[in-house]
Design goal:
The protein is built from 14 helices and no strands. The protein has helices at about 5-35, 45-50, 55-75, 85-95, 100-110, 120-135, 140-155, 160-180, 190-200, 200-215, 220-230, 235-250, 260-265, 285-295.
């Protein structure tokens, strides 16, 4: 290669590098401003997304979740609104409607976006997603508890109508009660019972406390439930129910846990209770009937 051609090549390479160094920062700044002003959403509609994964729905769900978390973090850092958040959530739920992680964070994504913050419409949207989570995972205590706590305690701070706030608190308390029935911490029943009582739901309060009283093994928690029931003048049924369960547990199913005994129901004699219509003494089909027969 001739020397002058090598020198010319070096000068051209140096000139190109210098040009890139001069132009690139300005272009990067312009591109960043465009991205801050207008997000580019590249996903297809949720109705088509499921087919486009070609069966790899779990993998696509994880990728979308990672992308959603990344985008939420970037928008928070840059203090920008994120209007496409629901489109990502809808895409994830189109692929995997019972994806539990979404329901753990959907309220945070919607009501705590970048400034200026969430609105009443955001709170209503979050509740719709959490209600869907409870429908998709009807036996998941964590989903029910999250839905109940959001609806009873957090969401009302974004609402203005007192009647709507009171109704949301009652609905949330009922969801918390359902979570306790599914295995969540029984002590949470006290807050749910207080909300139901203030909302005028006396019968619902008593019913919930009775069930929680019968389900808990902790004597201190049980004593608190008993005091609450006494204040409602409805403690006798709960105490009778617990005594009956404990008696059945010790005599009929001592090899099982108390929770399993509650699940199985009262013991029945096959000989005495034969036939679908036999409901005499000792043949109760559930705990309610057993308590009624014991009175």
């Amino acid at each position: 290669m001739r020397p002058w051609l090598a020198v010319r090549s070096l000068f051209l390479a140096a000139g190109a590098a210098f040009g890139i160094a001069v132009v690139q920062p300005g272009l990067a700044a312009s591109a960043h401003k465009v991205l801050q002003r207008d997000d580019v959403f590249l996903l297809p509609p949720a109705s088509q997304l499921r087919a486009m994964t070609l069966g790899y729905r779990a993998c696509a769900t994880d990728l979308l979740w990672a992308k959603l978390v990344l985008e939420v973090g970037i928008h928070w850092q840059e203090k920008r609104s994120f209007p496409d958040v629901t489109r990502y959530i809808d895409g994830i739920l189109a692929l995997e409607p019972d994806f539990p992680t979404v329901y753990d964070f959907v309220d945070t994504f919607l009501v705590y976006p970048a400034p200026p913050g969430g609105t009443a419409d955001d709170a209503r949207a979050a509740r719709r997603y959490l209600e869907r989570g409870a429908a998709e995972r009807p036996y998941d205590a964590n989903v029910w508890l999250h839905y109940g706590q959001f609806t009873a305690f957090l969401a009302p701070t974004f609402l203005n109508d007192k009647k709507e706030i009171d109704q949301w608190r009652v609905d949330g308390a009922k969801a918390i009660a359902r979570a306790v029935e599914l295995g969540s911490d029984a002590s949470r029943s006290l807050s749910a019972a207080s909300i139901l009582s203030k909302g005028g739901e006396r019968e619902a309060t008593i019913e919930h406390l009775r069930r929680a009283y019968a389900m808990t093994d902790d004597p201190d928690t049980r004593e608190q439930f008993s005091l609450k029931l006494r204040s409602l003048q409805a403690d006798a049924f709960a105490e009778d129910a617990v005594k009956l369960v404990d008696r059945e547990w010790q005599t009929g199913f001592p090899f099982l846990s108390r929770g399993m005994t509650l699940l199985l129901g009262p013991s029945r004699s096959p000989a005495q209770c034969a036939g679908p219509s036999h409901t005499g003494p000792g043949c109760a089909r559930d705990w309610q009937q057993a308590v009624d027969q014991a009175k």
